[in-house]
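Pilot study result, target chain (193 residues):
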Amino acid sequence: LATFLVKLPARAVRNIVKVLYDIVKTCIYAAVHPLKALNQLAKLLVNLAYELTKPETWTKIGAGMIGASCGQALITGSPLSAIGVGIGAAMVIGGLSVGALQAALEAEEGSRGEAALQNLDQQIQEIPETMLTGFLLGLLMGGIRRFAEPVATAVTVEVPQHQPVFPPIEPPVIELPITIPAPVPVHPIPIAM
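Predicted structure:
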């Protein structure tokens, strides 16, 4: 247990560095090989759909969401992060429950309980690393958000309503000498009958 706890922060940092590296690598690859990148994107979408059918994936997503919400709450102090914790907890409970049930149904008749416990044990071992990785990512994103807030407020300029920003612009008055010609007299034309 002590070895696991000592290695846990290093694994979480490794996970974050790997995520950032993969993002940069994918962006560069997409710029250099756009057609191959489209093929890889299609493969990733198919793989994503398959992974979302696994209960273990929902457990990991929920654990990461709990960690990220706690990290955000620590930095920003927002009570809305409790919603993320609640959704994450529901996903973890659902993933653990469905995973254990699925393992029990797929196991042989005599070893269903053991298969369910083995599945729970396997999923629970992955939760701390995923939760800590999410927590550190939440701290990172919360810190970036917190850092960006003062920049946005420093640029904001408030102008009181009673003082105009610019003096009112009056239309220019141009006086041109205009002469209107006198009307031309109209002479009636005699019509012969």
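One observation from the pilot: The chain has a mean pLDDT of 84. A full batch analysis is planned for the follow-on phase.
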